[in-house]
Design a protein that fits this description.
The protein is 38% helix and 24% strand. By secondary structure, it is an alpha/beta fold. The chain has one domain: Rossmann fold, CATH 3.40.50.150. The chain has an 8-stranded mixed beta sheet. The chain is globular, with a radius of gyration of 17 Å. 43% of the residues are buried. The model has no long low-confidence stretch (mean pLDDT 91).
Length: 244
């Protein structure tokens, strides 16, 4: 049985058009490339702490089964694989998956990529230890269904890492108006600010879906240091939740 779609068709068409430039650090996805080191440092530290792994190891996530939901061209998936995880990447955009497969092959990385939606794939995979869902939830049309799919994909006691813009006046000014219309750092139409969830809203919905949120941190930017994970959630946030 095919689950109802949670993908936004307009967003999907936009991302299909951007797929060929996914790995260009100065291209239309350049903000994700700049955000990536801060996000992955958080993901790595959270996973190491949760699973009691060796933070000094060259491949600290070895032995973990990880699913990257909304993987795009594979930016997060490849980092997880380099840290030793056995990675599956999932995205609804066929063009992005094609790019992800080609790039991983060129890097000699063994990553299983699937084109589709979490509601369909969750029942086909063994329960995952770690699931990443970074800058994805704000593009989903049916949040409840999407989160249920995430829960089905992860084993009890497994770890979910999530990140998203917040729904505040600051994020409207910076993420929507500033990044899309003033600076041109994101393609116009990337985001619908009305779909952004506050940390409290997402935490409540995750609880209904079978997760316990353990931490939410802010994501901000400074001219001197770039993107940082800290205390202010005014613009965006990143966090971790445990499957109960």
């Amino acid at each position: 049985m095919v689950s109802p779609s949670t993908a936004d068709s307009r967003n999907l068409a936009l991302f299909e058009g951007l797929a060929k430039d996914w790995w260009d650090p100065d291209g239309p996805n350049r903000l994700l490339h700049r955000l990536h080191p801060a996000r992955m440092a958080y993901v790595r530290d959270a996973a190491v702490a949760h699973f009691g792994l060796d933070s000094r190891a060259r491949r600290p996530l070895s032995g973990l089964a990880a699913l990257d939901v909304g993987c795009g061209g594979g930016l997060v998936s490849e980092s997880l694989a380099r840290m030793g995880a056995e990675v599956t990447g999932l995205d609804a955009a066929a063009g992005s998956i094609a790019v992800a497969r080609e790039h991983a092959a060129g890097q000699n990385l063994s990553i299983r990529y699937h084109c589709g939606e979490i509601g369909d794939l969750a029942g086909q995979l063994a329960p995952q230890d770690l699931v990443t869902c970074l800058e994805v939830i704000e593009h989903v049309t049916d949040v409840a269904s999407f989160l249920r799919g995430l829960r089905r994909a992860i084993r009890e006691g497994g770890l979910l890492l999530f990140s998203s813009p917040n729904r505040t006046a600051a994020s409207l000014a910076v993420v929507k108006i500033g990044a899309e219309y003033v600076a041109g750092a994101l393609p116009r139409g990337t985001h619908d600010w009305r779909r952004f969830l506050t940390p409290d809203e997402l935490s409540a919905r995750l609880a209904v879906a079978g997760f316990r949120v353990e931490e939410v941190k802010g994501v901000s930017w400074t001219p001197a240091r770039g993107f940082l994970v800290g205390d202010s959630t005014d613009i965006a946030y990143i966090g971790r939740a445990v499957a109960t």
